[in-house]
Amino acid sequence: MFPGPGRGTIKGTGYLCSCKACSNKVLNAYEFERHANCKTKHPNNHIYFENGKTIYAVVQELKNTPQEMLFNAIETVTGSAINQKNFLSWKASYEAATRELQRIYGKEEVTLPS
Hints:
This protein is mainly α. Helices cover 40% and strands 9% of the residues. The chain has four helices and three strands.
């Protein structure tokens, strides 16, 4: 969400805008930033969680988190409540993809590109 006039909620891969003009429309990062009267080439540096951290800062913190600690770290780093149903669905999908990579490459531990 933006610290200024634009407020929204992360919804899927976009941002659910809470203003009356949008009628709860989901916008991508660039659209959401423009809609809040801010124009940069790095919207994730200007979209904030409730704890004041930008999306970019959160990603930077999480990218060095060991895989086995990632899911616990997400909630801590964002400082925001997580929709548990969606989070568990995403986590299961991530873990299934990791197992498939391990099966394909025959490795105990698969390092995913950052």
